[in-house]
Amino acid sequence: IGRIVVTVLGMVAEMERKFILERQRAGIEAAKTAGVYAGKGRPKSVPEAEIRRRHAAGEGPASIARQLGISRMSVYRVLDTKNPA
């Protein structure tokens, strides 16, 4: 009897998840039609030359990232590339 209950609850949860996704898609479509929904958008461009200049001047990666409004990993990624801009 315990397995039957678990199976039924699993099926109900799966159906509910499908309903949630359908409502979400419908909401996004309605928002797009209304011109409100634009999605995530394009990622910020990373000013490679500025990052390299600041790093050469002795500024740390965390400080550069904070001031430019980008992630620290973006700074490290630019500094790790072999071909400087």
Q: Explain this structure to me?
A:
- By secondary structure, the protein is an all-alpha fold.
- It has two domains: 1-40; 48-80.
- It contains four helices and no strands.
- It has helices at 2-34, 48-56, 61-68, 72-80.
- The longest helix has 33 residues, at 2-34.
- The relative contact order is 0.09.
- The mean pLDDT is 90.
- This is Resolvase.
- GO terms for molecular function: DNA binding; DNA strand exchange activity.
Topology, please?
Elements: H1 2-34, H2 48-56, H3 61-68, H4 72-80
Helix pairs in contact: 3-4
Family: Belongs to the site-specific recombinase resolvase family.
GO molecular function, one term: DNA binding
Domain Resolvase/invertase-type recombinase catalytic: 1-35
Q: Compute the separation of the termini in Å.
A: 67 Å
Q: List segments where confidence is low: pLDDT < 50 over at least 5 consecutive residues.
A: none
Number of helices, counting only DSSP H or I runs of 4 residues or more: 4
Q: How many domains is the backbone divided into?
A: 2
Using only C-alpha atoms, the radius of gyration works out to 24 Å
Which structural class should the secondary elements be placed in? mainly alpha
Order of helices and strands: HHHH
Q: Let me know the number of strands.
A: 0
Percent helix among the residues? Answer: 55-70%
Would you kindly provide a brief summary of this structure?
This is Resolvase. The protein is built from 4 helices and no strands.
